[in-house]
Amino acid sequence: MSGNAFLGTIIPVGFLIIAIIISIHQHNCQLRGKTPFIGISASLVIIIGVPCFIWFSKASPQFVHELVWAFQKDDPKVVDAIVVETANCLDSEAKWIHGSRSQKYYDELKYWNKPSYVINSLVRQVIVPERRLHILFLTVKLGIPGSEEKLADVLMQYGDKKMAEDYLNSGSTKLSDAGKLWAKKNGYIINAGTGSHRVYWGQY
After folding, report:
1. Is-contact 125 83, C-beta < 8 A?
2. Is the dihedral of CA 104, 110, 113, 117 positive or negative?
3. Would you say the pTM of this structure is higher than 0.70?
4. Under 8 Å between Cβ of 136 and 126
5. Low-confidence residues of the chain, pLDDT below 50?
6. Is the CB of residue 178 less than 8 Å from the CB of residue 156?
7. Distance of alpha carbon 204 from alpha carbon 186, whole angstroms
């Protein structure tokens, strides 16, 4: 949550609450003929609060958006949507094609508060044939700890030579071993350093 977004909501609301409390307190004191304990005028608080509200109001929608987004992060459909959108930012050679938007989505997934949600989503998406290549690219680039074992299983079930090459040259020891095992089982000889170098483990 950004600082401006937080302040954009908290400061105006805070001043409003203070003004209401002061108004109620002074009203009660007047009815009882007592001197208000709080000597600050409610109108003064409002005068100070209004400029603050105007100043930070532009940030308030961002705060609301970020707050709602925080509550949606446990929804598998939301995770899947972000994973697919991020994968769509990669071309067939694993190069990013949407600049700052790509970086934003990538960082969101890489530092997700519950990495297992992202890993499970990547596995769900990588078995879809038309998405497999780009999801694989994304998974390796993210380099989330604990995802290698599940990726190795995906290779054994759905893999091909090019996928094995990507694993072999990804920079991950576990994926490289999976690539070698797949090649051995399928009668291929794949040498690291001569094949695909489109993706590297944990690198944007």
Report:
1. yes
2. positive
3. no
4. yes
5. 1-8, 64-65, 68, 194-195
6. yes
7. 31
Residue 50 structure tokens: 């209004």
Distance in angstroms (rounded) separating the CA atoms of residues 152 and 156: 6
Question: Could you tell me the sign of the dihedral formed by the alpha carbons of 91, 184, 156, 159, in that order?
Answer: positive
**Spatial separation of the C-alpha atoms in residues 49 and 162, rounded to whole Å:** 62
DSSP string, the chain: --HHHHHHHHHHHHHHHHHHHHHHHHHHHHHHT---S--S-HHHHHHHHHHHHHHHGGGHHHHHHHHHHHHHTT-HHHHHHHHHHHHTTB-TTS-B-SHHHHHHHHHHHHT-SSHHHHHHHHHHHHTSGGGHHHHHHHHHHHT-TT-HHHHHHHHHHH--HHHHHHHHTSS-HHHHHHHHHHHHHTT----TTTS--S--TT--
Q: State whether the Cα torsion 47-48-50-55 is positive or negative.
A: positive
84 neighbors 125 (Cβ within 8 angstroms): yes
Q: Write out pLDDT tens, residues 107-119.
A: 989 988 889 999 9
